What we know:
The protein has 11 helices and 12 strands. By secondary structure, it is α+β, with helices and mostly antiparallel strands.
Amino acid sequence: xxxxxxxxxxxxxxxxxxxxxxxxxxxxxxxxxxxxxxxxxxxxxxxxxxxxxxxxxxxxxxxxxxxxxxxxxxxxxxxxxxxxxxxxxxxxxxxxxxxxxxxxxxxxxxxxxxxxxxxxxxxxxxxxxxxxxxxxxxxxxxxxxxxxxxxxxxxxxxxxxxxxxxxxxxxxxxxxxxxxxxxxxxxxxxxxxxxxxxxxxxxxxxxxxxxxxxxxxxxxxxxxxxxxxxxxxxxxxxxxxxxxxxxxxxxxxxxxxxxxxxxxxxxxxxxxxxxxxxxxxxxxxxxxxxxxxxxxxxxxxxxxxxxxxxxxxxxxxxxxxxxxxxxxxxxxxxxxxxxxxxxxxxxxxxxxxxxxxxxxxxxxxxxxxxxxxxxxxxxxxxxxxxxxxxxxxxxxxxxxxxxxxxxxxxxxxxxxxxxxx
Length: 421
């Protein structure tokens, strides 16, 4: 029931159905951004189903909670934001767990069973995991959805209609998972036999989404039909807190504006008030004196000895290489950084060239320029910093090597400080 001033309006059945349906159709119509992925048809199908599941769950939560409670029209904004945040995070987490868990434990299965060849114990265990994990994830999603909905509505958990609601949510979750997993595997198997029509993944995903949503709404309608609970006011404060948590946990969940506001204003303010800790930007006993930023500063993974492998910081504007379209970065890495970290985070590895240059000119610094298209990179090694190599990446290709090297030397002289031996 929606309140507008002194008037109250019931949410009719057709609107209760239309909101999630229109949301899913809108997500399908916007799936043209995925058309370049038709070269990978199974991934195309999976991405469309995941996108539509998020949209359908968002629309369902908005319509269902508004139908079962009393809510002011302006509180629908908070309800919509919270529904979208909860749907996005839950669907992303569910799909990640369902897809990554089998591969993550494949090594464990091999170590236990010795083989995953067809007909072996390992193959049976791996197949069991692929079945149990989606069932468990669907169970958890339905349970959380039921508890959260009844809490927001002020309804008791220990009631007969709680079980009906849970069963409806569980059935809907399993239908969506079945459509996504079975369709993904079917399309992958079909394309292994030979390429099919380009429109098939899109069409199959669209039909599967509409079928899953129809079953979900049917199950939910049967569970709601016998509900006789009083209508309390929606707990908008809890929804606002959920929005704040989701925004803090995933700043880009509400778009680029929310992303910039969180990382450029909210997090720095909380760190200035000592509410959030400020990580130390340090590597190999050197500390980099630049302000910490959640996006622009990156601290690399630990090496086998537990110490940081590298840090990435922005080059401040005062060094003269930044522009509207160019934001150079300084990468400071341990000289013994492994290939695993190098291939994951660095654009080039010039350690061999730097070593040869220093060997040919003993006692002198070495600098190697690396062209990267319209931008350029500069690798630098100096005996003044014997434990690290430095890379300046992202300055304009028209900038001369001498100017870039002077800016980098000045940065190291002013910003890189030795903190331990």
